[in-house]
Design a protein that fits this description.
- By secondary structure, the protein is of the alpha+beta class.
- The protein has one domain: Arc Repressor Mutant, subunit A, CATH 1.10.10.
- It is built from four helices and four strands; from the N terminus they run ββαααββα.
- The mean pLDDT is about 85.
């Protein structure tokens, strides 16, 4: 794959953005840190923004993807549910398949970008 281009996957439902690379990364960071706040901070977003994204995810799927525990003396926390882990795995599997299927086309596209030496393209032959 080239450094100039990247291919991202977005899964939409009913013309609304349901799941993309940002939400998946947020879920991965929640799984690693056990905290919505820490995950959001790692991505450069406020707790409120991270919470709204988690809430959106939890509303779109049949069961919640992120389970939360309220703060207090012992502190709160968050973790991915089994469904949440399944969604992340499926998304990453789909993403990998897309990259594999489009690697050659991505290389061709990169060759057509500014600043790149142009090679003869099989598309134009």
């Amino acid at each position: 794959m080239t450094k100039n281009l990247r291919l991202t996957l977005r899964v939409d439902t009913d013309s609304e953005h349901a799941l993309g690379v940002g939400k998946v990364r947020l879920m991965e960071l929640i799984d690693e840190s056990g905290s919505i706040s820490k995950a959001g901070k790692a991505m450069g977003m406020s707790y409120r923004r991270a919470w709204l994204l988690v809430d959106d995810l939890n509303q779109r799927f049949a069961t919640p993807l992120v389970e939360t525990q309220r703060g207090g003396g012992g502190g709160g926390g968050a973790a991915l549910s089994e469904t949440g882990r399944d969604v992340v795995k499926l998304y990453r599997r789909m993403e990998k398949a897309c990259l594999k299927a489009n690697g050659e086309a991505m290389e061709e596209m990169a060759g057509l970008m500014k600043g790149r030496r142009r090679k003869a393209s099989p598309v134009s032959r």
